[in-house]
Write a structure and sequence with these properties.
Helix content: 55-70%
Number of strands: 9
CATH superfamily of the largest domain: Porin chaperone SurA, peptide-binding domain
CATH architecture of the largest domain: Orthogonal Bundle
Radius of gyration: 33 Å
Strand content: 15-25%
Distance between the termini: 47 Å
CATH topology of the largest domain: Triger factor/SurA peptide-binding fold
Structural class: alpha+beta
Length: 327
């Protein structure tokens, strides 16, 4: 009996090691991130990943970016719980109604998105909590009148609107001699009738550009043609001008002079731009602070690792989490 007792610890150690290896190779789910009190594993990601990609092809880089995005969402939700953020069910119901006025319409819309009602409710609740947390974090942001005025002065060039024109055109292919000969005698008076007659032509032999700038026209018909059209008086035929396989005749019919928008016209636009810039900076700084102050780590490399190697590489983190009751 004594020799058997002598080997019992070895048998126990062998069985424990064997069980650990079986667990590591066949059962263990690698860690993907820790955010606050949430421990997110690979099987959790595989369960929700279809909601992100909707069956479309994606790169490993895209998957890693979405994983990081999900980890930050969980960190924000964790802070929301600490802040005591609560979402009234009525708000969730209102958002659900946007999918359809009846239960049948909502179910149909959800099927098209490959989602269940429970998935949709969860996503809405998460989004509303995130919005409320962001509102509380950035609620003290202000944009002064002086900041708006200063931005306008410093970015005056961006508020200049170039001259815009509405331009008719007809064109002929290099091998279409009968049509080319007909267009050689085109006049301002004949232009509208040709446009009406050939405007729906499948070969695109007539058409118009509505309120375009010189640079926009240049992108379509080349710099030489655009320059000639914008130098020309209104309602005067310009052409022939050759661009690629076409010979063009143009008729500018309306013009809107270049102008600089006034401060009164763009004040609201500037205010929103400055506010969003400040909001992004404040919220981004707050997120970085929360990543340092709370349990937060992301392990994108575990998306590719097999269970066995992830089991051992995750071991220090699992031990750390074991001794952190709040995590």
């Amino acid at each position: 009996m004594k020799p058997r007792k002598k080997w019992l610890p070895l048998y126990a150690a062998f069985l424990s090691l064997t069980a650990m290896l079986i667990y590591a190779m066949g059962v263990y789910q690698p860690l993907l991130f820790v955010a606050g009190d949430q421990i997110f594993r690979k099987d959790d990601w595989e369960r929700i990943k279809p909601l992100y990609f909707q069956g479309r092809p994606h790169t490993p880089e895209e998957e890693e970016r979405l994983l990081e995005q999900r980890s930050l969402e969980e960190l924000v939700l964790y802070k929301g719980r600490q802040m005591g953020v609560q979402i009234d069910q009525r708000f969730i119901d209102e958002h659900m109604k946007q999918l359809g006025s009846t239960k049948e319409e909502r179910e149909q819309a959800l099927r098209q998105m490959n989602m269940t009602e429970a998935d949709s409710v969860t996503n809405i609740r998460r989004a509303l909590i995130g919005f409320e947390v962001k509102r509380r974090v950035t609620g003290e942001i202000t944009v002064t009148e002086e900041e708006v005025n200063s931005y306008y002065r410093d970015h005056l060039e961006s508020f200049r609107i170039p001259e815009l024109r509405t331009i008719y055109y007809v064109r002929a292919g290099q091998d279409d001699k009968p049509w080319m000969d007909k267009l050689k005698t085109i006049t301002t008076e004949r232009f509208p009738s040709l446009l009406k007659e050939y405007g729906s032509d499948l070969e695109g032999r007539a058409g118009f550009y509505e309120w375009v700038s010189q640079s926009e026209l240049s992108a379509n018909v080349g710099e030489a043609a655009a320059d000639a059209v914008f130098r020309s008086p209104v309602k005067q035929v310009v052409g022939p001008v050759v661009y690629e396989q076409w010979t063009y005749w143009f008729l500018p019919v309306e013009t809107m002079p270049a102008k600089t928008q006034s401060l009164a016209e763009v004040r609201g636009k500037i205010y929103r731009a400055l506010y969003l810039e400040k909001e992004s900076a404040v919220y981004g700084k707050w997120l970085e602070e929360q990543k340092r102050a709370n349990p937060y780590r992301v392990f994108p490399e575990n998306l590719k690792k097999n269970r066995f190697w992830a089991f051992w590489s995750d071991l220090p983190v699992r031990l750390q989490l074991f001794f952190q009751p709040h995590a």
